[in-house]
Design a protein that fits this description.
Layout lengths: L14 E3 L10 E6 L9 H14 L8 E5 L3 H13 L2 E7 L4 H9 L3 E5 L11 H11 L3 E2 L8 H17 L6 E5 L4 H13 L4 E7 L4 H7 L31 E5 L1 H15 L5 H17 L5 E6 L13 H6 L11 H7 L9 E2 L4 H11 L3 E6 L2 E7 H10 L8 H4 L5 E3 L5 H7 L6 E4 L5 E4 L1 H8 L2
Parallel strand pairs: 2-10, 3-4, 3-6, 4-5, 7-8, 7-10, 8-9, 11-12, 14-15
Antiparallel strand pairs: 1-2, 12-13, 15-16
Helix pairs in contact: 1-2, 1-5, 5-6, 8-9
The protein binds pyridoxal-5'-phosphate (PLP).
The site of pyridoxal-5'-phosphate (PLP) has 19 residues, from helix 2 and helix 6.
């Protein structure tokens, strides 16, 4: 068979049976290996669809420039489409992404602009905002916006869904996928559920992302958002491509569990895949252990290839530096809280307090940082060294309200976050907060983590 250009080879990726990692799980577990696409990821499917839909709608004209905020894989798909169709590409990317992903995009002719990861999406420095601004400034440019562009979901509805349905001869009972923009989960899920409404879908989320809590409670909780390492899944926004009505369950997976599972996929199944593939398989198998029956067939989509992560999860030094190669379990935030034996009370300042009251409180209780509360909600924080420098600059601040000097709130983390994950999240200065089952808030500092790890 001869193809007219590389983009005609997108899709029709193989379904492969897991033979080892599924030990002890009933039913068959199949993985859809998306690195067989020409850009080595499933995002080729939606990239070409977004470009072709934009051409049809007159949004992309000959000689135009494609501008996108991308974690790399969408960029690769767009770059291939651009080469085949004669467009230019500029991509903005968060600086947590692998260097390999940036170099790969440059290799296929794109210009890449790297932006800071730990700023809010509406900050002008974020990769979302920079892409939007470039789109406004560059004439004849097209900003696909993979998050809200429904061609993304449609691509998977039209290709991934039917391929899975046909390859399993309609026997699929469960579909699992990581959720980033939501396209690969929701387009495929919509198609499969139209074919058979009993197909159960399991979305894989990360700690540090809003999806699971939003699905389960309807609350968009900014306290769920904190930096994490896994690339491609989890969000701090609700993209239009995430249709919660077709995602039945969410499972959260830690960076470490995902990294360890990805390496096992390579070593034990010969599937040299990317980091979010480990998230998908770890989360899906955890769910399958409890829920799958002998006659069931689960399909898990594996988004991309391992080459993009050679400097990270496939590098032993990197894994060790992140505490991901430790065999011994360090325990979780829950263990730190349990060890306090209920003897501990969170020290807080109220929104109405004066700065001098907060200082007296911190001195009296010998703590260096406290959350600021308003009606039971955490609205900010005070840390002694930042406060000190502010007061030295302006001594009158002692009589100001705490809200005039407070910083951002400490981040909330899940009760079952493991200590290695916690340690990657406590900033140089700032502690993290945990809410227990009784809705009591606890603070965990770097010192607490060190103490628990060395016990
Ligand atoms: C490596 C990787 N995994 C998972 C995803 C999530 O897929 P989706 O955006 O379809 O939800 C992406 C998307 O960028 C990705 O690049």
């Amino acid at each position: 068979m001869i193809y007219n250009s590389i983009i005609d080879t997108i899709g029709n990726t193989p379904l492969v049976r897991l033979n080892k990692l599924n030990k002890g799980i009933k039913g068959q577990i199949l993985v859809k290996v998306e690195y067989f696409n020409p850009g080595n990821s499933m995002k080729d499917r939606m990239a070409i669809k977004m470009v072709e839909d934009a051409e049809k709608e007159g949004l992309l004209k000959p000689g135009g420039t494609i501008i996108e905020g991308t974690s790399g894989n969408t960029g690769m798909g767009l770059a291939l489409a651009a080469i085949a169709k004669g467009y230019k590409c500029i991509f903005t990317m968060a600086d947590k992404q692998s260097k390999e992903k940036i170099d790969i995009l440059k290799a296929v002719g794109a210009e890449v602009i790297v932006c800071p990861t730990n700023v809010s999406p509406d900050d002008p420095r974020s990769y979302y905002s920079v892409a939007k601004k470039l789109n406004q400034d560059i004439p004849n440019s097209f900003y696909p916006n993979q998050y809200d562009n429904l061609s993304n979901t449609k691509a998977h509805y039209e290709t991934t869904g039917p391929e899975i349905w046909n390859d399993t001869e309609g026997k699929i009972t469960h579909y699992a996928a990581g959720v980033g923009t939501g396209g690969s989960m929701c387009g495929t899920a919509k198609y499969l559920k139209e074919k058979n409404p009993d197909v159960v879908t399991v979305g894989i989320d990360t700690y540090g992302s809003v999806f699971k809590k939003y699905k389960e409670t309807g609350v968009f909780d900014e306290n769920e958002v904190y930096p994490y390492l896994t690339e491609g899944i989890g969000e701090d926004i609700l993209p239009k491509n995430v249709d919660f009505s077709v995602i039945d369950h969410f499972v959260k997976v830690t960076d470490k569990d995902a990294a360890v599972m990805t390496r096992r996929l390579s070593k034990e199944e010969g599937l040299f895949v990317g980091w979010s593939c480990g998230s998908a398989v770890h989360g899906a198998l955890e769910w399958a252990k409890e829920n799958l029956k002998e006659e069931d067939t689960m399909v898990i989509i594996l988004p991309d290839h391992g080459t993009r992560y050679l400097g990270k999860i496939y590098n032993d030094d990197w894994m060790r530096n992140h505490g991901f190669l430790e065999n011994k379990s360090f325990g979780t935030a829950r263990d730190i809280i349990a060890a306090r034996n209920g003897s501990y009370q969170l020290v807080v300042s109220q929104k109405t307090d004066k700065v001098k009251d907060a200082i007296a409180l911190m001195n009296g209780k010998s703590v260096s940082q406290i959350p600021v509360m308003d009606n039971g909600h955490v609205i900010g924080s005070i840390t002694d060294n930042k406060l000190l420098s502010k007061i030295i600059e302006n001594p009158d601040l002692k009589d100001a309200a705490v809200t005039d000097v407070m910083e951002d709130s400490m981040k909330f983390v899940a009760l079952d976050s493991t200590l290695d994950v916690l340690s990657s999240m406590v900033d140089k200065e700032k502690a993290v907060l945990v809410r227990d089952e009784n809705h009591h808030i606890h603070i965990i500092t770097k010192h607490d983590i060190l103490e628990a790890i060395t016990k």
